[in-house]
Amino acid sequence: MTAPFLPFALPEIGEEEIAEVVDTLRSGWVTTGPKAKRFEADFAAFLGDPALHTVAVNSATAGLHLALEALGIGPGDEVITTTHTFTATAEVVRYLGADVKLVDIDPATLNIDPAAVEAAIGPRTKAIVPVHYAGLAADMPAILAIARRHGLKVVEDAAHALPTTSGGQLVGTLGSDATVFSFYANKTITTGEGGMLVTRDPALAQRARVMRLHGMNRDAFDRFTAKVPSWTYEVVAPGFKYNLTDIAAALGIHQLRRAHAFQQRREQIAALYEAGLAGLPVVPAPRAPAGQTHAWHLYAVRLADGAGIERDRFIERLFDAGIGCSVHYIPLHLHPYWRDRYGLQPALFPHSQHAYERLVSLPLYTRMTDADVQRVVQAVRQALAA
Ligand SMILES: *Cc1c(COP(=O)(O)O)cnc(C)c1O
Predict the structure, then answer these.
(1) Taking CB atoms and a 6 Å cutoff, what residues make up the pocket around ligand 1?
(2) pTM > 0.90
């Protein structure tokens, strides 16, 4: 008897989420409305900062686009981000006609290297987009200091970072211009598809609210619930269709309540991996500094130089043992679009390239049992020994 396939990721959806979705379906209001508003209010409360504005959107990609649009990024501008990320982080810059300047990572954390950011700043640079890779905070004190020195905006890609802390403060409250979370199916909380833009800047929040719904200055729920005539609105810009549905928000309301418990389980699994992999030719996933919270969206290990097996072959062996893995990420500089547009070569990003060639993300999700983790550890051991 072979064990069933252990997938790389699975969401944890409970009865509360299901009941809330059913309630939404029965309510007669399925698009953006009372549940999306409640999810926004709950999210601000979760982050615990009364000065925060929260704007629910249908993806983190949408939220990043809206944040950069609201900051006025456009043709002729340049935005600095890490090559070691998902393409969504960078593609939104191109939506706006601006250019992307990719930089290398710190090999200790796999996060964007602040020194590389500072070295990449030029006359066209307008913003920095750090990514909290795997759920470990990027070096935000250094990045915010660089931004202040050079008059740059900062938008955090926090797709992996709920909940993550830096200097004891939750990501979302660190003082950047905007922070964007993802609720994609495999993220630490999910609404199927969804995201949240968070900012202390009321003008940025207002612009994002207008642009998330066609550039209209009143949304449908406002119009149908207000006392003034419901048919009136003004189009003030050619906006987008980025609003989060109440069906999705219904999931988010209950997922958010479980976010701390989910993080604790993810941290336990990470600790089991670290203990189980000790002594093997594998570099464990970087930990957060003492006292800080790592969201543990991913558990990404690197095969050590003495591992005696190629990464691709290693993943095949794990797959043959019934275990799903992934690689985070194929760096942007290797993808044809980014490589060709900017004439990029691996030698420009030695740390990201070195990591990429050795990286494997092991399964990490709350529905895994301790026995599942031990099974992965065993399979890693056998793949390395074979
Ligand atoms: C998932 C992810 C995104 C995009 O999130 P969506 O909600 O799917 O748009 C952006 N950046 C990073 C680093 C991600 O992992």
Answers:
(1) 59-61, 85-86, 88-89, 131, 157, 159-160, 182, 184, 195
(2) yes
